[in-house]
Amino acid sequence: MSAVRGGDWHLLGYDTDPVPAEASGLDVVIKHYEDIALAMETQAKLLKKIGDGDETLLKGVSADAMRKRSRESADALNKAAGRYADVRDALRTYQPALETARSETGLALKDAQDAAGAQSAAEGMPDPVNADRPEGDPPLTDEDRRASEKRSGNIAAAKEDLEAAKARAVAAMTTFDTAADAAARKIRENWGDDGLTHSDWEAFLHQLNKFLKKLVEILMYIGMALAVLSILIPGLGILTLLSVVATVVSVAASFILAVQGEGSWLSVIIGVLSLGLIGVAAKMAGGLKGVQAGLLGRGAGSFANQHRQLQNLFRQREWLRSLLRIGATPDLARSIANLSFRIGPMTTRLRGWQDFAGKTSVSPGWWQIGKPNAWIRGDFSKLSAWFKNDVGRVKTAWPWGGSYRWDRLIGLSDIKDVQKLSAALSQLGVGGFAIKPWMYIGPVSYTFSWAMRPFSLLNPSNFNPADPRWSLYGWRDADYAGLYSDQLGL
């Protein structure tokens, strides 16, 4: 643990304490490596017994199949234990040097501070020889000269003491650095000979996995933010695209990690399921968009036919009214009344449909953000339209525009729009479209796909704050620099 000592370390040429750790702080570290080495040696002995055919520990067909691997594992485990033992022994040798360096630098600091104090006191002594003397002052006496000499001697002695303190600190740190280098060599001396090596491919995979783990972690936060925005404001094409891309990349990275046993298959499964449900929702919503377009087309056709019929009725009524000038008869009056009775409701229906159709259109789907083949050709001409669509969605979202559609939030908007169109068509006497129960699979898929999106980007460790991988620092490799800087303050 850090035990930084205060003091005027600049007197020795240091900005701060050059040995900011107690030697006793290594006791826990040494014990840790000793325990690991002992545990590995114990397990290696058990594996060797199994490999040598000891049936008191394990027997049977499965045991026979494991014996060769057990011998190999025992050998590798012994070599690994040797590495931990080397670290333990190196730290045991290093510990006294740490204690000596801390003691010597502490004593050197005391000497330097005493020398600095002595120099300050000497500089405050009278110096008649070098002092400014007004004209007319009596000549210097022998006592005045001795006072100046004493001052100069004390200052010189203090400076010598300060240089001696610096030399003592430098010597202590030189010895300390030599001990640290020796400990490092001791730790690594057998690394090239013990057979515990890895291939270039393994080294590449190690670096790749580190990168992928960090990437998944970063995409988790980005993807969750985009997913939340996509859920709260459905139909944001660009953000939806980015959210899907983040999920695809995260799922791919999680798959590579899971194949190697470095990641969770749960994250992969949830991610794939989320993407699959998005596809299902998009396909079914696309079908409903087609139904809406078809209903609008059917309504337009029926409106045109009924409008022609209405015009014919108007002409018939006008013709009958012209006959009234010749002579009114009860049959003629009844015919005109019947025509008016038919024209009134038809006019109302047609006006109602005209008003409804004028305010109704098939809204673009939240998944319709362009075609990949156009992107491949470099055609980004619709990019401005996508952004305008996103801006429009945001403006109509609560609380800005006040026309926020909650049915769109859960993917029911297309079903509701079909039902509204069908109801409007029924006013024209035209059959609409009956929503089948299975069509609600689309909204359910839509809701679950967005709701599962954040979880597909989470690592299982994020659900357990006690897991050491919980934070961004959790993916950091264990290394000696990290050990000393974080725990020992070296």
Describe this structure in words.
There is one protein chain. The chain is elongated. The longest helix is centred in the N-terminal third of the chain and has 63 residues, at about 60-125. The protein contains 13 helices and no strands. Helices cover about 70% and strands about 0% of the residues. By secondary structure, it is mainly alpha-helical. Helix 1 runs antiparallel to helix 2 (about 60-125), helix 4 runs antiparallel to helix 5 (about 235-260) and helix 6 (about 265-325) runs antiparallel to helix 7. It has helices at about 25-50, 60-125, 140-190, 200-230, 235-260, 265-325, 330-360, 370-375, 385-395, 405-410, 415-425, 440-455, 480-490.
Indicate the topology.
Blueprint: H1 26-51, H2 61-123, H3 142-188, H4 200-232, H5 237-259, H6 265-323, H7 330-358, H8 372-376, H9 383-396, H10 406-409, H11 413-427, H12 441-456, H13 480-488
The Cα radius of gyration reads 44 Å
Q: Give the biggest sheet.
A: none
Number of strands: 0
- What's the assembly state of these chains? single chain
What proportion of the residues form beta strands (DSSP E)? under 5%
Shape by Cα distribution: elongated
**Count, helices:** 13
Q: Into which percent range does the helicity of residues fall?
A: over 70%
List SSEs in N-to-C order: HHHHHHHHHHHHH
**Mean of pLDDT:** 76
Q: What is the SS-derived class?
A: mainly alpha
| Termini Cα gap | 9 Å
Uncertain residue ranges: 460-490
